[in-house]
Every structure is written in C-alpha cells, then in structure tokens.
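Exercise 7. Given the components listed, write out the predicted structure of the assembled complex. Treat all entries as one system.
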Amino acid sequence: MSLLSVRELNIEFYDHDRPERVVRDVSFEMEEGDVLGIVGESGSGKSMTALAIAGLLNRHDMRKSGRIEYMGKDLLTIPREELRKFQGNDISMIFQEPMTSFDPRLRVGTQVEEPLRVHRPEMSDYEMREAAVRTLASVGLDDPEKAYSLYPHELSGGMRQRAMIAAAIITEPRILIADEPTTALDVTVQAQIIRLLEKINMDSHMAILFISHDMSLVKKLCRDVLVMRKGVVVESGRSEKVYSEPENEYTISLMNAIPKKGARSYRPEDNDLSEGDIVEVDGLNVYAGRRKQRRLIVKDASFSVRSGEIVGLVGESGSGKTTLGKAILGINKDVTGHVHCNDPYPQMIFQDPYSSLNPARNVGWILEEPLKLRSGLDRGQRRDRVLEMLETVGLSPDIYHRFPNELSGGQRQRIAIAGALMQTPKLVIADEPVSALDVTVQAQILSLIRELKEKYFLTVIFISHDLRVVYSLCDRVLIMKDGVIVEQGDTDDIYGSPSHPYTRNLLDSSD
Amino acid sequence: MKRLLKSKSFRAGLVITVIMVLVTVAGYFFSPYDPEYMDLSLKFAGVSPGHIMGCDNFGRDIFSRVLCGCRTTLLVATGTVLIGCVGGVIVGSLTGYFGGVFDTVVMRINDVIFAFPAVLIALVFASLFGNGEATMILALGIAFIPSFARMVRSEFIRNRSLDYVESARLQGAGNVRIIFAHILPNAWPVLLQSVIIGFNNAVLAEAGLSYLGIGVQPPKASLGRMLSDAQSYIRISPGYALFPGLVIILMVLGLGLMGRSSYE
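Answer.
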C-alpha cells in the first residue's frame, strides 16, 4: 500500500454556462520520503489537484470523482470529521503567499501552534510553546524565541514562509504539499527555501508534493516529476529522465522557454550605438513619501544608457529599481542630482497587464488614445495605425473591439507593449514585463521585445529580478541592492566574473 | 450591455419599466377623463367599465389621475436623480482623484448634507422658495448628491493608483482627460446601480413629501399625493389607495430588478 495514491482524479466546475473539467484522469502514487513535482502553467490544474488532496476543495458548484487514497482510505468519500483528523496532522500544506496565509492579528507563535491545539489536545501550553520554538529553530529562524512573539507583518517574506513551513511541519505530517511556495520570494530567498525543503525531506523522511511553474526549481528539488497541461498529465517520470530526454512536445516547449546562459540571440556589437547617450544619470538620489515619511530610496546612482541598447536593471524586491525607473521617466519628481533623458516622451511597460490596461475601454480605444493625445492624425489615419500596430505585435485585427478582460495574459501584455509604442518613443522602460506571465508566454514576449527593438530602434531599460531573463536579453546590466547600484558592466563580464559579493550570491541562487 | 440582456431579472425589469414609461407618455396625450374634473355623483364609485379604477372622494376618475400622477412622479424622480448624479459625479471624481486636504474638506461638507434628512432640506427649501415641483426636485436632488459622490469617490480612489492611469499620464493626458475619459467609464457600472436605486428612492421620497403636503399641490395629481389623500378613506374606498400604490410598486420593481441584475 502506498502512502498516497491518486486514481483517475477528475474535477469539474459548474459555475459557468458550460461545465468545465479542470482536472482529467490524473493518477500518481507517492511513497514515504518521495519528492514529487507537478509542473504546469496557469490553468493546468496543478493547484486544483493539490487542493483536492489537502481536502480543501469543497464547493457546491463542482464535482470530484476518482480516488485519493491516503494509507488505503479514500479521502474523497470519508466523512468530514474523519478527514479533519488527517488535515494538518498527516497531510499539511503551504501556500504561495506567506502574507495572506497568516492571520495578521495573531502572533506567529500562536499560529504555528494551532495544528497542535487541534490535533494534540493533550499537550500543555508549555509543551506547545516548546514545540513551536523548536520547530521555528529547525526551519532556520535565527531567534526563534523572538519570532514566536512577533506578528506576521514584522517578519520578512522569507522569514514568513519559513514560519509557514514551521506551522505545516509541527505535527510531523507524512505528506507536505507545497503550492508554489517560492514564487512570491526573491531569488536568493527562493534558493534558501528550496534547501530547507530538501533538508526537511532528508531529516524526517517527509514526502513532499511540490507544485510549481518553474521547471528549474522542480529539477533542483524533485526526484519525480509530473508535467500537466489543461488538466491532463502529459508526461511523468524520473526528473533526470524527463529533463534530459523529454518526450512530450509540450514538455519540450516548456524546457526551451527557460532562458539559458549562452543562448543570447545577438551580441552588443550587432547594435548601432553611434547616436550617443540617451539617458545620463549622475549622483541621483530619489526620495519617496511625504514629510515625516520621506525616505531616500535610490542612493547616488550614476550611469548612462547608450542609444539602441538594452540595459538590464536587476535587483530584489525593495531594491529601488522601479523607483529609479520612474525617476528617469519623470514620474518621481522628488530627486536630487542630475538626470537627463534625451527622449521627451519616454514610455513604460508595466509588470501587471491586468492593471496597465483600462478595463472599461476596448483595445481600439486604448491604442488610439496615445495618438489622440500626441499625433495630430485624423480618425482614419489613427485607426490604420492601430491596426498596423496590432499586426506588428502579433495580434489579429478582430481583437480591436475586445475588452481587456476578454484577453489572455500574453495578449494583454502585447497590447500594453503596443500602447507604449504608439507614440514611437526612443526610450522604453520595461518594469518586469514578463514576470506575471507563464514561461512559454514569457519567451514569446521576450522575443517580441527583441524584434520591436530592432524595428523601432528602441533603447530599453529592462527592470527584472530574473537573472536568466536579463542574461538572454540585455547588453549591459546594472545590479542594485538596497537603493545602491553595486555593480554595472557588460552582461558577459558580469555573469562571467562578478566582482561584488552580492552579484555572486544572486548568480549562485538563480542557477 | 449584452451580458445584462442575458439576465432574466434585467429583461423582466426592462419590460416593466418600458411599459410604465409608455403608459405615462400615452397618458400625456390621452386620458379617459379630465383628471381634475369632479363629478360628485360618482363619489367613491367602485370599479366599473366606465371607471376602471373607480373614483375618488371628489368623484374624479382614479385611472385618469394615476396616468397624470405617473407623469409628475417620473418627472420629479428623473430630475432628482439627474441633479444628484451630475453633482455626485463632479464632487466624487474631483475629491477621489485629487485627495488630500481638498478631499477632506469637501467630504466633511458632504457628510453634513448627508446628515440632514431629505425631508428637512425640502422643508427648508419650501419655506424659502415656496411649495411646488421645482422646489422638490431641487431639494431632493441636493439631498441625493452625497450618496452618489461617495460611490464615485471610492471608485476613483481605487483606480487612481492603477498602472493604466500612470500610463495615460506618460502619454500626455491631462487631469481632466484622465478623470473623464479614463477613470469615469470604470465607475459606470457602480453609477448605474446607484442611479437605479436612487430613482427608486426618489419615487418613494416624492410620495413621502407630497404625503406631507410639501411637494405637489392639489388639485394636481401625483402618486404620492393620491396615496396620502386616500388614507382617510381606506375603509370606504380601498381602491383609491390600492391602484396608485400598485403603480408605485411596479415602477420601483421594474427598476429594482434591472438594478439587481447589474451586480449579479
């Protein structure tokens, strides 16, 4: 009898006009100590599968069929009271967003103890506290006594995710389900969490079901892997085998979508850099907030961007990269020092195409608006230009009358890019333009940016936390940490021989 | 709009509302009797083929008076909502978009108006400008501004920090254009709902005010006025209260159904 056996699991939703089957005939087995990865893009059904196993998928407008057997008991059919004995005791789960998975009003310690309060009523308060502190220490929090009495908002993202893991493993479950546990975290922290999960698996022989969209993380952690697409398992097997000789077409396209070192499509010398500098920044300090809350975000930044190059601005969250980008655009006006931009109307591509497109307007209006504001073209000409641009960014003209909520993430980002280019700017600042997208879509958008850069002779400042993406795209790189540019230079030099310890740390974490 | 038309309750509401409007318009050109003609021989006459809703205490034909009352009531409600909506959009969008001290000051004034019952404002206006429909529309309209303003303001606060607004600014759009062309369309769905709810409240408020004698003056008919007159005779002639009441219910129901479906 295996530890966990999922047999022909089907999940159907009835909340729309037509029933929608989000998981189709998924079957797999897990033994004690296994680490199984489920990889897939959004909508692949990977999280639904995980939630069903954790017993957290109970809605009236859905139907589950098949079997989920834990130690021979079918979790789908046993009564709620019995299921509750397993939840958080034998099977635990950690989620993507460590901020929202904690109750902001309760101390971390109280929440880490919670599973014990439910499943080990015989334990005294003192014993629970002991166990919580011990577990917090085991997940690598330096001062577990202190962390115990803090509130969730007083911890950093990484520490919060560690505390979340502590809450999940305090009852020593046999199975830990981790649903995208590192997606919301910075790369260096990501690597630490993966190492922690590895250690937990080694030390206590806990089986881990690791859900992720990131092929390289799954490769690092998991012995077996399941590739899902649109609710169906398209490929499964040992990680080494799936990664070295993928059989399914979709798996291959997923693998190819990962930007690789040495896979750059062009070299800096291909570019015509004769026009000189387009952006000059010298001793720039950028502040945010008003009056008492005014803080220095970017400290003494100096660099220049030559016309026609793609410069990567890399750093973790809170490093000030977006603030610096907005200072160059002139959106952040609270600056001291020198910033000069040779393009009077530079544009920006935002991270989240869900908020960068006006939800109340259709695509045609959104793309025409920049022309209405600054072009002097008449109606017919504007319409022609919009249709032309739609073609350029690889969309069909029927999209003209659609609204943003009728488009996929990738289509939206194409529209956002088209909107930024309507006024034919010379400089475009792209703020994490692909990090909200699935990997295969990511690859398409990156190649689109490359194409458009050639076509319109653009200069691009590419803000990103993803070193692989930056490597595949950028001529030069600026590395930022805590508001300071710690290192800058040609991409090959920096990736080949990083001189600042932080850069080295970043590069090690992202391999 | 297409999505709305799919909803059953929206279609039902639309049908009721269209019928009510048609009846009102038809009543403008045609009514079986002069709504103000009194025939005391017909005092409290019951329902008959000649007088399908019977007659009131002065022997006036209730059906003719209902037709005429619909017109008054619809006019007052439309005027009220129009003033409230336009005023609310201006106040709400400016405060929500600009924020800061301006927002604080204007919204406190807004709260003060909100704190006064509509009836009180109408009384003040009536004593200043005299009774009548115009006074009532103005008073109710002003009383309605705060609730519209709050709705619109919260939509603007939610939208103003979104990336698409920043993007519009980079493309060279000014504040006025951002407010009216970019953000305001996002407030339409919420605004539509408040218009419909506001319309219902206006119908009821008009009935209430006329009932108190501040609004429409006799002998002119309004649905509210008729209800208030009918209450003294409810035992003798239940039809006098019943028919205008039913028509008010239909008006409110039609718009209520439409409003409900817009947030379903």
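Discussion: Chain A touches chain B at residues 329, 331, 345-348, 350, 352, 355-361, 369-370, 373-374, 416, 419-420, 422-423 (CB under 8 Å). Chain A has a mean pLDDT of 88.
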